[in-house]
Fold Class I SAM-dependent methyltransferase.
Amino acid sequence: MATNQQKGWDEFYQHPDAFGAPYPELNNFLENLEQKRALLDLGCGQGRNSMLALKLGFQVTGVDYSAVGVDTMVTKSNHQIEGVVEDIYNYNPSNTFQVILLDAVIHCQEEDRSKEINMFKKLLSSLENEGFLLIITHQWDMRETYLKETIEKEFPQLKYQFNKHLEHFYFPPLAEEEHIMEMSFMCFKYQKND
């Protein structure tokens, strides 16, 4: 993690609701899960998705290297969300999760196949059988295709479920007009080998 990049995110997250509201498609997916247990929001920022999951009944852990973002999330949740200040590649989950979410975080990292595979190995070891890995990423440079192919090749026990196109409208801090982000929402279901 570059210190100047972390400082940039700390400054960005000083603005309330920097990325706007959660995606309706993510809300629908989480809401429709019959049981709601533990959710890991890796790269949680200010916790917009963590807060959504908490309101839906999940026990939530949010991880981000921005202390400002994590502190904002923990305070906003009245300390109901466990906040961890850590780089996504260095985080070692100590719990088991029904859902692991990486929203708009993978594409913010430099591509490093070795680091990504190591991270996914750690995440897989903490994902419940029949649990879900959700990855939301920008639709540029075929990043979603690369991630899908990497996961299918390296982790055959993660079964591809869908890839939905999302359009996310929001006002970035200090912007004068609304922005749109074109996103891919990928879902993989974990099925342990027998």
Remarks:
- The longest helix spans residues 113-125.
- The helical segments are 3-12, 24-31, 48-56, 67-76, 113-125, 143-154.
